[in-house]
Amino acid sequence: MMHQHGRPRRSASSALDLTPWCQVYPESVPSTVKQVAERVGMPSRTVRYYDRIGLVRPDERSDAGYRLYSAEEEGRLLFIRRAKRLGFSLDEIRGLLAVAEGGCGATVPELDRLLEQKVLEIDARIAELSAFRERLIDYRAGKRLSESNCCSGAFCGCLDDVPEP
User: Fold this and answer.
1) Rounded to 5 degrees, what angle do the CA atoms 73, 109, 99 make?
2) Which of 77, 80, 85, 81 is nearest to 96 (CA)?
3) In sequence order, what are the residues at sequence separation of 6 or more whose Cβ sits closer than 8 angstroms to the Cβ of residue 20?
4) Helix axes 33-40, 44-52, angle to 10 degrees
5) Mean pLDDT, rounded, for 159-163
6) By the number of CB atoms within 10 A of the CB, which of 50, 64, 69, 165 ranks highest?
7) Is the pLDDT of residue 11 over 60?
8) Rounded Cα–Cα distance for residues 49 and 31 (Å)
């Protein structure tokens, strides 16, 4: 289709999309904190915190002093975000990141070990909560909930009969 001045008219689909992840830019163009945070789905302050504690490192700084992150660091942030969704602590993630530097062959067994450990922790916590629930039910069933029986000291005595765990 021709424009009225004799130049070809661009359709909307052929217009340049100048977003950092389109093919116009090489993959090595570094991203600012804000850009990388938006792409990985976390707040900028979290990216800065992870930088401060050493989980990620900007490859360089811009002339204006902005942190600039590579595609690899963006990948590390995605890895961290996904590991957090699995319930791993930042210390566990730090160890997993170190192992991941060696590739998937080293990462998969460590990930399996951490997941098994997490499942055991959850099972133990469920057992603790179930026992606590039973103590609450037993206490409530045996408790005489009456105002006249509890206020006989310097302070409210309603919980004087709570058993030790």
Assistant:
1) 35
2) 80
3) 29, 31, 35
4) 110
5) 79
6) 69
7) no
8) 17
Distance, CA of 25 to CA of 92 (rounded, Å) = 35
For residue 2, the one-letter residue type is M
In the block, residue with structure tokens 């469920």: 126
Q: What's the pLDDT tens digit per position in 108-155? A: 999 999 999 999 999 999 999 999 999 899 888 877 665 556 666 678
Contacts of 21 (CB under 8 A, 6+ apart): 39
Burial of 71 (0-12, 13-18, 19+ CB in 10 A): middle
Q: How far apart are CA 36 and CA 71, in angstroms?
A: 9
> What is the residue-averaged pLDDT of the chain?
83
Tokens of 162: 């709570």
